[in-house]
Each structure stands twice: as structure tokens, then as C-alpha cells.
Amino acid sequence: MSTAPASASASPPPVDTVNVQINGKWHKFPKGMRMIEACRIAGELVPHYCYHPKLSSPGNCRMCLVEMGMPPRPTPGQEPAKDEHGMPVIGWMPRPVIACANTVSEGMGIRTEGKLSEECRRGVMELLLINHPLDCPICDQAGECRLQEFSVEHGNGQSRFREEKVKKPKNVDVGPRVRLDDERCIMCSRCIRFCAEIVDDPVLGFTERGSHTTLAVHPGKRLENNYSLNTVDICPVGALTSNDFRFQQRVWFLKETKSICTHCGRGCNMEISSRQQTIYRQTPRENNDVNSTWMCDRGRLDFHFVNSEFRLTQPLVKKAGKHQAATWKDAILAVAQGVAGVPADQIAVIASARMTNEELYLAKALIKALGTSQFDVVPRTREADNYLRAADMNPNSNGVRTIWGTEPGKQLDQIIADITSGKVKVVLALGENLLKLGLTKEVLGKLKFLASSHVLANATAELSHVVLPGATYAEKRGSMINVTGRLQRLNKAVELPGEAHDDWEILRDLILAVSGSNGLHSVDDVFKRMAADIAIFQGKTLRSIGDLGVQVMETDEKIPLLERERERKAKGIIVG
């Protein structure tokens, strides 16, 4: 992968603007902007169900009806009528229009409030609620349901419907990760359009007519693509629910933490939802430079190991062939004693490209203190898909290239060969299970000293003389550089279990024990020192990275999903 410093983006071309009156106030908007987006920018939110800025606009829910007007065309010889501010007087149409599919033009007037639009919304809400089940107390969508919200804001206080409700299928297995409750469906078609337009998997559709219309999977098909859970995110009601999150927690009890996904090198922006130090779900958040508003299923479900019963929770030191719980002071001292007096060419460090930039920077300092030239990270690659998933399955390979100045995996085969032959007698494994690299228990058992830092109990930890329990991505703060060269930030969502420590603290203490020099008291201090040494971090802090990250280098990596999204936006198919 070729990398280069990020270049300044060219200024965008000038945009034609038009004057639009919204609820009596005049604004300027780009010509051709959707009315619903213009209202949003003006601070006048229009209720909607079927509309989504990343999808086409079918205009089938009719919830976004607003009043529209234009200046009357003057008769020949007459001047257009003006108001006291010199703006044209609006002539209002007698019927409403949908705001999601119509665009603004010069002199247009829009009313989001008024008798006509309010009556229309009440009528739409009454229609949607005729056959809707009153099961909010057991519905997973309760607390983030648009039907609940808009029924309070725009609906009637009571129902006039006295007939029997139409019964539809419930708890339908439509795929391995999604359940369908057709009685709750309001036929917004968001899920259908997502599958067809975003992930090219048109497996959903409507069947029957009128009040008996139901959402269904096409015969012989399943909703099982790697992006299926995005349909749960965009469903405005509780029709589609996640099998993994179903009946687990009420959303108003959850704490939302902005972070990034570490399942692959894309670094999709997401929110971690937790309660009482337990993670319950991960959902995408919008970043139009990384993942739009989507996220793959594998990434969002890659959190259960954080709550695993196999987590390492205290330092262990092997004595008489058995691991015993130790204090951090004794464990760090044991590592220092294990490497003391060993020639540098007999020491190897195998780290992980899942480490943050701050951890890689301290790992480099530790390697320098040990004097060894045998160090590397474990590369992981897999075939990329045509949407978001990157071929590089490590989240911070560019951090390795930037901070260590080496290509991931360049020395790994030689290091493994030297361990196998017995040339290397001391190994520090930082965040990796060495047995997955082809090394055997017999080979590792012959090492003079083996220390490992990891989050889960594994075969390498079992063979280690010292085991140091570390932190997962959800328990730490730090930064990573994704495959497109964007510097992004991890944020701490839950506390560390037991006596586990943040990895940067472990590395700092190891450096202190080996070399005796340090002075770092927080991960922000590590970033500041790193920024003073490495050009692309200069002038930045962890805080200044922000929630959406900053571009720090250019790579040849493209994001297929975003490329197609830009094309659709340019053609006016979506707002984007």
C-alpha cells in the first residue's frame, strides 16, 4: 500500500442558491435541495417514515406532507407583488405536497405548521395505528420508536376504530440475525430499499394488498447478507429486531459511547451501548468519509468477547510450573528479570496491529530499551467485499507503518524460524496468541522466558512465565489510522474487569522496569510525546481528533460503498 501525506482538498465549485420562505422566514438554499432537508436546516423538522437521506424517496408514507406555494404569475404589465421586506408574496396551493421528493426553487414558500398540514398528519397517523398492535411495553423499539414519538406529537388522543384489527405474522425468522413482526410494520419500505440499493441483495418485498399488505422474504431467499442488521437500525418501528439484542435491555437505560469498530481496517464509526459495565449492542454512527451510516454485521457483533467469562483479570506469574496470582509490581519485575542479561539478538517481540498508536509508540520504546531488532506484528488479510469490509483485518496497520516504519509481517517468518530453531530464547507476545502463528507448545515450552499480554485466556498465556491482563477496544482510549489514512479515536465505554490494566500503562511500566526512564501519566501524555516525534501527529491531540477523525495520509484504498453513494448523490437519486 502506498502512502503519502494528506493533501489539502480543492475548494468545491460555487453552488446556485434560491430564496425559500419557510414558516414565514426567508432562507437561502442550494437549488434542487429536497424540501425536507431545507426545512431541517432551517430548524423546522418535518416528521417522516419512508424518507432516508441515503436511500431513494418513494414518497409512500405521506407523513411529510407540507403546504407549498409560489409567487403568483403577474398579468402582463403588472409588477410582482412584494411584501414589506421586498420579497415576493406567496400564493398557497390548496393541497399539500410531500417534502421528501420535491425540491426547492426560487420564491417557493413552505409551511410545516398550519391547519392543513396538521390535519394531514393526524390522518396519516390514524391510518397507521388502525391495525398496529398496542404492544409498546414488550417492543424492543420502545424508547427510540418514531411511531411512538409522532403519535404523541401529531396523532389523536383516542382511536375511532372499532372493528377487529387485521392479524399478521409475528416472530418470523427472516434471517440468522433478524426477526420480523409484520403487525408492527408500517410499510415504509426502508428495509426493502436498503437491501436492493445498498447491498445488492433484493430479498425483501411486499405481498398482498391494502390492510393485508405484509413484508416478506422472497421464496427460497433469506435476509442473511453481512449488512442485514442495518435494516433493524433504519426500521422506524419495531417490525425488524436483532436476534442478538432482542429483549436484552431497554434503550433508555443504555449509555452511548462514540468509538470506532476494530474488526477490520475500515474503522467504521459506531456507538457502543452499555449498562453496568456490560456491552449490549453496537450500532453505526454517521461519518461520510468512512462508513456513511452503515456497518457490517460481523463488526457490530464483535463485542461478546469483552464480556467473556474467559477474560484475564489478574497478573499471573508461573512458579514451580503453576501460575499464581501476583501483584502488578511483582509481575512487571518478573518480566524485567526474565529479559535481564539476555543478549539482544536472542529476544523477540511479537506485537499486534490491533494496538493503538499510543501503545505502538510505547512498544517501540520498549523494543529500543531491549536493544532487539527482531520485532513485528501479525498481519491479517481476507478478501474485501464490495461495500465496507476491508481486506486488511487489522484496524491499525497504518499505525504500524507510521510509528514503527516497517511493513506488517515483514520479519515475522524469520522470527518464527529463529524461535523454532532455538536462536531466540526470550519472547514478549503483546496481544497475540503465538500458537495461531504455527508455533507449537513444544517449541514455546523450550523458551528460556515467555511473557504475554492479552485479554483472553489462551494457549500462549498457559505457556507463559508471566501473564499480563490487558484491555479491549471498549475499555481504553486512544487512536488508530484506518486503511484510508484517517486518524480516528477510540473512547472508553466500560471499565476494566478485575485487576486488568490499560495496555499503555503495562508498556509504560515495562519500559520503566527495563530502562528506568519515563514520566507519562495519561494516554494524552503519550500522544503528546508521539506528536513531538512523528510528523503526521504534530499539532494534534487526542481531543482535537474529534468524533469523526482527521485525514493524516493518503492511500490507494477506495471505499466501494461510498463511491457508489457519491454517484447516486450526483444523479439526484439520494440526498446523501
Q: How much of the residues is beta strand, in percent?
A: 15-25%
> What oligomeric assembly is this protein in?
single chain
Number of helices: 16
- What is the share of helical residues? 10-25%
The parts where pLDDT drops under 50 for at least 5 residues are: none
Strands, total number: 26
Which shape, going by the Cα principal axes? elongated
What number is the mean pLDDT? 94
Please state the CA-atom Rg, rounded to the nearest Å: 29 Å
Order of neighbouring strands in the sheet with most strands: 17-16-22-21-20-18-19
CATH class of the domain at 316-560 equals: Alpha Beta
Distance between the termini: 29 Å
Q: Structural class of the secondary structure composition? A: alpha+beta
CATH structural fold name of the domain at 316-560: Rossmann fold
Q: Largest sheet, if any?
A: 7 strands, mixed
CATH architecture of the domain at 316-560: 3-Layer(aba) Sandwich
Domain 4Fe-4S ferredoxin-type: 176-205
Organism: Roseimicrobium gellanilyticum
InterPro entries: 2Fe-2S_ferredoxin-like_sf, 2Fe-2S_ferredoxin-type, 4Fe4S_Fe-S-bd, Mopterin_OxRdtase, Mopterin_OxRdtase_4Fe-4S_dom, NADH_UbQ_OxRdtase_75kDa_su_CS, NADH_UbQ_OxRdtase_ferredoxin, NADH_UbQ_OxRdtase_Gsu_4Fe4S-bd
Pfam family, one: NADH-G_4Fe-4S_3
